[in-house]
Predict the structure.
Amino acid sequence: MFAKHRWLNVTLGLGSLALLAACEQKSFEILPPIPVEQLEVLGVQTPIKSVHFHDREGEGLLVLSRVDGQATDPDTEEEVDKVVLKATLYGRAADGDAFKARWQIEQETTCAGLDLDVDFYTDVSDVGDLNKDGVAEVTVANHAFCGGGIDPHDIAIEMREGQAIYTITGQSLISPPGEDPFGGEREDSASLKNAPPGVRAHMDAVWQQVYKRPWSESSPSPDDPDEDAE
């Protein structure tokens, strides 16, 4: 009888350890930020945002960066403004290992003699675990504009989970006072159209947060004279 109880206790103990190991393996958590000096070691020139985390695949580090410069237009051979946005996911198996790039999204925008506005939407570019399976979902959103008036910005939103990639591309919505809105179109990737409901809901929520920026409202600048003043 004693042996039977002992075997039962050992079995329960092993079961508890296995359950604990499974929970630890599936856990997702945000870790303390990586110092900027360590980001420079990775070759990141101008970090805008970084997210340090741990998931079922190990330790991860998302870094958003931007580089401003000049480029030569192949048609006119003139110098034009250039902005390169990079979103890079690094990973490592242990603390002592060096971070290695798992994937990178790069967007280059050039603009000749017009207003150039390119950047990440840092408030919605982040890392999370939507379905609580221990595998991180990485969301990156950015916009780009080259023009001389009030025109839509090109918007790109991408979410990656493991090998899966889901995207939305489109234009911001412009709503001039007293005029019909224009822009606001979007196109979902085939993978997103067939994605689980939670993924589609997340991507749509990100789109809803950004597609009315930055021209959802138009109003006179505080420095402009009051047109109604006599």
